[in-house]
Every structure is written in structure tokens, then in C-alpha cells.
Write a structure and sequence with these properties.
The chain has 127 residues and is an all-alpha fold. It has helices at residues 2-14, 21-32, 35-40, 43-64, 67-78, 82-86, 104-113. Helix 1 crosses helix 4. The radius of gyration is 16 Å and the shape is flat. The relative contact order is 0.13.
């Protein structure tokens, strides 16, 4: 039953009008790669369970909503570049090139355990 609920949740995400990237990001960061999952699962289970869910979403997009890939690619081309971000006064950027949402809870915990405070987190896409 749980798998059917997850499938329905994923399918409904893809049927949403407008940009789906924020919805996919929200689902990944709050349900799959959440701090709660990281805190309450052992590290191996955290990664294995998360990768299985991401694979299901990728397969669903591939087999039923291929246009989502085009949508994500076109949004990447519309995003501002790093130089634009650096021109904003009082901007602090930390770039984890190659890191993904799945590592965020790990990185946040490390930052907090060494005395740093995470003020804001977000994502940027690129092509």
C-alpha cells in the first residue's frame, strides 16, 4: 500500500500545472533526503531508501512524462549564472559542486557541529 501512495504522490507532482522543478525539489528535500530521514535511519538505509525513491521518480518521468526533462533543461538555461549571484551585495555562497540534495542533511549536521549556522539553503540548476 505504501508503494501505491508514493507512486500516486509522484504522479500527482508531474501533473501539476506550471514549473514542476520547485515541487520536485520540495518533495526530494522534505520527503526523500530530509533531515528527519537522515536523523532516524542508519546511513546505509538513508541512502538506499532514498535512491530507490529517486529511481522510481526517474522511471515515472521517463515512461510517462518525458516532457519534464525538456522542461528542466529549459529552466536550467533560464537561470542566472554565478557571476550574477556574486553581484548581489552581502551575498555569501557555498558551492558544493557535485553534491546533491541527499548530502545536504550530512553537510548541515557537520556545519552545525563545528559551530556554523545554516541561515538558508536552496538550489540552482545548470545545464
Amino acid at each position: 500500500m505504501k508503494d501505491n501512495n508514493i507512486f500516486t504522490e509522484m504522479f500527482n507532482m508531474l501533473l501539476t500545472q506550471g514549473s514542476r522543478l520547485p515541487i520536485i525539489y520540495d518533495w526530494l528535500s522534505n520527503n526523500v533526503w530530509s533531515e528527519e530521514n537522515y536523523r532516524f535511519k542508519n546511513i546505509r538505509t538513508y541512502f538506499e531508501d532514498g535512491e530507490k525513491l529517486v529511481l522510481k521518480l526517474e522511471e515515472l518521468i521517463l515512461f510517462s512524462a518525458g516532457g519534464v526533462y525538456d522542461e528542466l533543461a529549459s529552466e536550467a538555461n533560464q537561470q542566472s549564472n554565478l557571476l550574477d549571484e556574486l553581484l548581489i551585495p552581502k551575498t555569501a555562497l557555498v558551492i558544493f559542486d557535485g553534491a546533491s540534495l541527499r548530502e545536504y542533511p550530512v553537510l548541515k549536521k557537520l556545519a552545525e557541529s563545528t559551530g556554523f549556522r545554516v541561515v538558508e539553503s536552496g538550489y540552482k540548476i545548470s545545464s
